[in-house]
Design brief:
Helices cover 45% and strands 18% of the residues. It is α/β, with parallel strands linked by helices and 120 residues long. The chain is globular.
Length: 120
Amino acid sequence: MHSTSVKRIIQAYDDPIVRGYCWARFGILRQRFLDEIGQYLPDEGPVLDVGCGFGLFSLYYAATGPRRLLRGLDLNPKRVAQALRAAARLGLDNVTYEVGDARDFKGDGEASAAYMLDIV
């Protein structure tokens, strides 16, 4: 399931440079690492992806945990737009994205978990 999810997610991006980046990121962050992070995420409920970029990992965790509600936050509107398009192509309705600065983010509800990858 997981390798199929990775391929589907990468194919959902319309920009070939972003697809290349995604292949590299999934290559660097091996399945074992993704599973390590995933074990700390709830099976259901809201999860915040701070600095989501193109939405690569939030799409992965939304696809592999359909009862999770992933919410991505990033400064870059172009990356957020890419994430939104990829989510739509994948038919994922359990992930949302918004442009915003994590330093100013106050939230509007509780999150069961939050993570940051590649933000530093």
